[in-house]
Design a protein that fits this description.
GO molecular function: flavin adenine dinucleotide binding; oxidoreductase activity
Oligomer: single chain
Largest sheet: 5 strands, parallel
InterPro entries: FAD/NAD-bd_sf, FAD/NAD-binding_dom, FAD/NAD-linked_Rdtase_dimer_sf, FCSD_central, FlavoCytC_S_DH_flav-bd, FlavoCytC_S_DH_flav-bd_sf, SQRD
Pfam families: FCSD-flav_bind, FCSD_central, Pyr_redox_2
Protein name: NAD(P)/FAD-dependent oxidoreductase
Keywords: FAD, Flavoprotein, Signal
CATH architecture of the largest domain: 3-Layer(bba) Sandwich
CATH superfamily of the largest domain: FAD/NAD(P)-binding domain
Strand order of the largest sheet: 5-2-1-9-20
Helix content: 25-40%
CATH topology of the largest domain: FAD/NAD(P)-binding domain
Number of strands: 25
Strand content: 25-35%
Distance between the termini: 31 Å
């Protein structure tokens, strides 16, 4: 995609962050409760407080601080520290959001109550659920919570911060082997494992140049695959080895004691560090509330993000089924704003605004080297679909020619700008 068109698409997406063009509902008041304070929940709270002042907005989030998954991989490369990707909720509270730092244990949809860990209940007129994901322990034989201490996932910051994996990486011997296992779709942040490959390789190239990285993938294809593989061949040709499913890349069991993984056809791969990213599903509270179907994910109505199974509850972010949109931070932010607008409209007795959603996924793959993919989606009562001709992906190096280095440098800068913009938007900083 030409850089001018890329800039226009990114600018349009940034405009959604700064001033979303969602139809504003007639203010009718009501109690809006939001569960989960990540990309979806924090965005919903900020947007509801700023754009629907008659709503009583309560955000329920167990932790007083939130560490983002985006930019977590940059910690592995030594480019970021954990504090720089961690945020608090004080500014949301100062804007008038009632912030409750407790875990939620159950949803009583019949009585419209959210039950907290201390037994208290919060009544709601509309509930927005952004509960995130759970890992499917045991989906890979031998991989349970105990195994994760030796073979970290680093995929849910509140359960296991990326610094656990960082410490193992830094302690890995020169000439050692870093093994990563990657699940089949769907999972949180489709480009995430491949950015992680890139950031680990960047660190190894600098600190342990004789080391190797072996990525074992349950799929044959992945997001931005040609771009990632071009970058690995260019930047890390002697470090990165990626094996897809057809090359016996699907891992079926692990042996933490031996620091070894076994593939579908019996190949055993041993690592000094083993990063297992297991299959995933919607968080338990969503499943127990009856919001998930047999897939473990939560179906929603594309036009409103309301649950397809339980009335007056909207499910946003990673937990919901919103294909062809990916499970990404930007997607959750976009879901959030539309869900709030629809909830406010329903409380005011008005029709929901038209459903348009946006997504941008940036990935860092090396120093001054960024790539991205953009999509715009339309929700109808029947389906969620990508708007034809609306999105695009970074052009490959062979297409860019002499302009490649500058293009990649600019995309890396755009990525940093995107991260600063979306975190400011979420947490009420600007």
């Amino acid at each position: 995609m030409p850089i001018q068109r890329r800039a226009l698409l990114v600018a349009a997406a940034a405009g959604v962050l700064a001033a979303p063009r969602l139809a504003r509902a007639q203010q009718g008041g009501g109690r809006l409760v939001i569960l989960g304070g990540g990309f979806g929940g924090a965005s919903a709270a900020r947007f509801a407080r700023d754009h629907h002042p008659d709503l009583e907005v309560t955000l329920v989030e167990r932790s007083p601080r939130f560490t983002t998954c985006p930019y977590g991989n940059l910690v592995l490369a030594g480019r970021r520290d954990i504090e720089s990707i961690t945020f608090g909720y004080d500014r949301l509270a100062a804007r008038g959001v009632r912030v409750v730092h407790q875990g939620a244990t159950a949803v009583d949809a019949g009585r419209k109550r959210l039950r907290l860990a201390d037994g208290a209940e919060i009544p709601y007129d509309k509930l927005i659920m952004s509960p995130g994901i759970d890992l499917r322990w045991g989906a890979v034989e031998g991989y349970d919570e105990a195994a994760a201490t030796r073979m970290p996932h680093g995929w849910i910051p509140s359960q296991q911060p990326i610094t656990v994996l960082q410490k193992q990486l830094e302690a890995m011997p020169e000439g050692g082997v870093f093994v990563m296992t990657i699940p089949d779709n769907p999972f949180r942040c489709p480009p995430g494992p491949y950015e992680r490959i890139s950031m680990v390789a960047e660190y190894l190239q600098r600190a342990k140049p004789r080391a190797k990285l072996i990525a074992l993938d349950a799929k044959n294809g992945f997001s931005k695959q040609p771009l990632f593989q071009d970058a690995w061949a260019e930047l890390y040709p002697d470090i990165v080895e990626w094996r897809g499913a057809s090359e016996d890349g699907r891992v079926v069991r692990v042996n933490p004691a031996a620091m070894e993984v076994e593939t579908e056809f019996g190949d055993k791969v041993k690592g000094d560090v083993v990063n297992v990213i297991p299959p995933q599903m919607a968080a338990r509270i969503a499943r127990e509330a009856g919001l998930a179907n047999e897939t473990g994910w939560c179906p929603v109505k594309p036009a409103t993000m309301e649950s397809a199974l339980v009335p007056d509850i909207h499910v946003i972010g990673d937990a919901c089924i919103a294909a062809p949109m990916p499970k990404s931070g930007f997607a959750a932010n976009s879901h959030a704003k539309h869900a709030v607008a629809c909830a406010a409209a329903a409380l005011a007795g008005r029709a929901a605004p038209p459903a348009t959603y946006f997504n941008t996924c940036y990935s860092h793959v090396g120093p001054d080297y960024g790539i991205s993919i953009v999509g715009v989606y339309r929700g109808t009562p029947q389906r969620l679909e990508e708007v034809p001709g609306s999105g695009g992906i970074s052009p490959r190096t062979a297409v860019l020619g002499e302009r490649a280095a500058e293009h990649r440098r600019l995309e890396a800068l755009y990525a940093d700008g995107w991260y600063e913009s979306i975190t400011q938007d979420m947490f009420g900083i600007a």
